[in-house]
Amino acid sequence: xxxxxxxxxxxxxxxxxxxxxxxxxxxxxxxxxxxxxxxxxxxxxxxxxxxxxxxxxxxxxxxxxxxxxxxxxxxxxxxxxxxxxxxxxxxxxxxxxxxxxxxxxxxxxxxxxxxxxxxxxxxxxxxxxxxxxxxx
Length: 136
Description:
Blueprint: H1 2-10, H2 20-26, H3 34-57, E1 64-69, E2 75-80, H4 86-105, H5 110-135
Antiparallel strand pairs: 1-2
Helix pairs in contact: 3-4, 3-5, 4-5
């Protein structure tokens, strides 16, 4: 196959190259992509909203809070009410890691970068659901 490609290249045939605009867009950094930037900011805003909601309800929480439930809906981990702030901390770590990897991969693989920042948004939503389940 390689020989056939080399033979066709000598004859003047070659694979079509992408249009110049597509090549420029593929090499742009992540912060030049509006969708990716919007998703990164949305994930950060969701994490901040979760931390703010937990902070506002902190005084109303009992000293011991059910932190984890098993598959049957029974409590299997109880902890101090301060441990509820691990949720936004976990969200911030996942957000930062996904944003860092997406930034590193953004110029070469736009789909991977958008998938990573989309998963950061999904994680924030799941953490908000977990906090709602714990607090209700």
